[in-house]
Amino acid sequence: MIIDAHQHFWQLSRGDYGWLTPELETLYRDFMPTDLAPHLDQHGIDGTILIQAAPTLAETEFLLEIADKNSFVLGVVGWVDFEATSAPYDIARLAEHPKLVGFRPMIQDIADDEWMLRPDLTPAFEAMIEADLTFDALVLPRHLPHLRQLLSHHPHLRTVIDHGAKPNIGSGKFDNWASDIAAIAKEGRAYCKLSGILTEAGSDWAISDVAPYAAHLFEHFGPERLVWGSDWPVLTLASNYDTWIETAASLILDGRSMEAVFGSNAVDLYRLTKR
User: Fold this and answer.
1) CB proximity list for 249: less than 8 A, separation 6 or greater
2) In the sheet where 73-78 sits, what is the strand order?
3) CATH of the domain at 162
4) Residues in the chain with pLDDT < 50?
5) For 82-117, how does the pLDDT look when each residue is reduced to its tens digit (9 = 90+)?
6) Residue-level pLDDT at 188
7) Residue 238: which domain range?
8) pLDDT of amino acid 252
9) Number of independent structural domains in the chain
10) For residue 185, is it within any domain?
11) How far is it between the farthest Cα atoms of the chain?
């Protein structure tokens, strides 16, 4: 089974994608299931995890409607306002949908780097644990020490780090990111997504640019906790679906690891067998 564990859909007319502006030329249009389906068919991909792209409950409901109409969407990672007193209720209510598998606050866009450690967010994290949901950590390298602390506070919070925490591959920065990501991998049970790294490398990337970062993730999370995703259509800023799946496969050395990273790990991470 092959699963794309990180993809997006959006419809501009909905109007809640604050980050999505005309300056992002290739992304500034609708991306819907009919756009992705040919890629899934071409590569024999059995299903996807659909990830939120706007910080609204309305968008989460929109994604769940898409999931209801498209069987290849195996799960939806949505959004709730973790700061709201209603957060535990909202989490429990949305978790009743069989395809709701997790939540993702857009931490990379929050001004306070220590936001995730605020005490008033504890009820939201506890509600996620209670509902057996996955926390997608959309973080940058500077957030990793805080994420490490958060996970020590909530050791039962099932977590996946999106896009390897977006290392600054284009600038060749490695050491601090490498140290922090290794510490998280060693100390806890977090998963990590092998996704988004071509975008961080820039449009003129070469495989020699991304290979050390992928190798570091593979070394520390191992084939048991590394999960492949396309990050489509954001991927199109730097490459295309065909190239990325071929590149990712070339970075993984053996068939057993391929099976885990490209499929079974996503099943475990998002509890898909329970859905």
Assistant:
1) 258, 262
2) 3-7, 47-51, 73-78, 100-103, 134-137, 159-161, 191-194, 226-228
3) 3.20.20.140
4) none
5) 999 999 999 999 999 999 999 999 999 999 999 999
6) 87
7) 3-14+31-274
8) 86
9) 1
10) yes
11) 47
